[in-house]
## 1
Amino acid sequence: MITSISKTEQLKSLILKDIRSEVYRPGDSLPSIRDLCRRYGVSKHTVSQALSNINELGIIDLIHGKTTRIAANPFRKHIELIYVSNTPIEQQEFWSEFYRGIVDEFQQNQEFKFAVRSVSEYGSLGAMENIDVANTAGALVLGSTNPKKMDFLRRNEIPFIMVYDRVNDENASFVTADLRGALIDMVKLFRRRGCLRTAYIGAFGKHTDQGINIDKMKYFKEALTIAGMTADESLFRDAEHTMRGGYEVLKAMLSEGLRPDGLFVASDIIAAGAYRAMYEFGLKPGVDIAVGGCDNLQIGNFLIPSLTTIELCRYRQGRLAARRIIERINDHTENEIREVLPAEIIIRESLN
């Protein structure tokens, strides 16, 4: 007999428990609504609501007027897309391309369902604490390297793949782009241009302490060394990942009398602000200071001069990550996944 106020949730938990313990197996019919009412001492409305909630999870096939059956693959159909931003993912230019790839892959595998869960990168777990752990088959993590979030997924035995970003952890799976190779190619362009003092603006200090932004700066320094160029620490500046961040940091550098002849910015968004700072100091981007960016965002095409940048294959990364999490769930494998797609340089007017 169920006596608690939240009868629907309790009944849902009891039925799910029976399905997990294989009282009901895949393809089996559930008892009729009348029989469930009698067994648990609840109303027809409570039973109908509980079954509807379970049906939304893809665990049963509920067809009104027909027998309700256990799905062929219960508990293996729901995937969380954990996304760090308050902006809807389809409206965020950088992440929307990853998302488009993920959606297209799931459309080819319609036995899987997914939901986007927006979370904050710092502080408590927040919305992640609301994940229905028992009914989540896996997760894709976009834009987070927070160890608390990774620990939560591991603790609850939810397999996950990081998309684009990654952590230096041998137990973490990821799909990313080869930024190291791309930055070596980018620095070759600066060298060919004859740049002797190449600056770097990106998030690597107080704005972030881990993940791909740190790697990006490290790879750029390595690329300078490989090219026989000097990495002048005074020209490496930490910046907020915004246009204002790029503007303020380059303005401060130029105000200090530090004038680079080359500039790499960790995002095309930062480049737009840096362009503004150059113009205010009477400098022409692409002429007085050669400029390279990263991400291949639309804004790079509309800057004057147009911005040389790094294409990260964001759509392919998203689609591949979705395919790999599906394969991992279907194959019951615990092998770590590490896929690195080649990034490529898009040469435009600012550095050619």
## 2
Amino acid sequence: MSRVTTLSIRNSKVVEGMSPLVAVTAYDYTFAKLVDDLVDIVLVGDSVGMVVQGHSNTLSVRLEDMIYHSRCVSKGLQKAHLVVDMPFMSYQVNIEDALKNAGRLLSEGEAHAVKIEGGVAVAKTITKMVEVGIPVMGHIGLTPQSVHALGGYRVQGKTASARESIIQDAIALEDAGVYAMVLEGIPVELAKAITERVKVPTIGIGAGPNCDGQILVLQDFLGLNTDFHPKFVKRFAQLAEETRKAVGAYASEVRQKNFPEREHSFHVDS
């Protein structure tokens, strides 16, 4: 089983007949091991703040949280490429801090690359990271760490000026040296235009079918997160319902003293 690398991801853009890249989020060893041979990229997203920690946004996630979850996910992967989000304010203050924090995510978190939100504003930081050997995946469009500045989780790029700004962000990311970029929450037509213009793969989430790959939060498309169902998420399973059914059956058998039975117990003669 050969490992998916930054090079193979970048090259997928120019390989004729190459299938779109498949990416999912994961935050622990169990899920990482389950998805490893089925996907190309596993992202330890700062969405952990909402999915695992119960926050209303990603802004409370700390660098130490990302290191911990990245290390857990790393233990479950043998094939998939591991990317980890740089959390809010871990790269925005200055380039020196950004390099140090990204280095920790690779060394302590055992990630293969980091993901940074923003375009033109963070291009210099990305350039420096790439120069010192830190692979960077970009992220433009709807950038969750800017949720308050954006006025909420709203589709971006609806006006001509907004579309042009996002295109300039994409160009800046490519020039800075990213090996791929996430396009989130933008119109299909804009995602298509960016995908055709840049030479690195685009990975869409709420950006339509014309990107070079797709990513979704695992808990969302497994139907585990029943409180969150945006338009761009397709439910491929209803595991919340199945989980509650299983827990209910377990609770019922315990209360009725039907579990554990002999086959689930240890005896002197067995």
## 3
Amino acid sequence: MKYASSIIPLVILVAVIGALGIGLTNDPRSIPSTLIDQPLPVFDLEPISKDIDGLASHELQGHVSMVNIFASWCPPCRIEHPTWMQLSRSDAVPIYGVDWKDKPEDGAKWLSDFGNPYSKVGSDYNGRLGLDLGITGAPETFVIDKTGRIRYKYVGPITLDVWRNEIKPLVDQLEGEE
């Protein structure tokens, strides 16, 4: 009986170490989304400035597109921004922006300072759309198919390698679908 009291903490320790070990093998960018293959939530976001059109969900139907969640306060968003600028110049796919939990004037200034790669940008100042999309932070990017369904979610900064190896093949496939 006295050995049982010393074995219980050892079993608990082994279980905790095992759980942590399994957790460390997971890719932190691979956050499953229950919205994959689901319709995009309905939204109509105000513009972040008078010079940039706002964004509504109905505008994302009829063509394959990408929606990037960004904010002026987001350091990783600065990392991915040159990639967005390059992709917007290539016209590979329409890119839309959602300025998340950010003052619209701050988002507008940020785009003015660094360039605007987006066709339209909506303000999600209160974070409501972010909640509906299951956002865990910025940046996050969604690929939307022609019917307005979410087909892919990427968490973290988009790089040219991510574009070439993960997103572009999916975009090409979706563009080929009827």
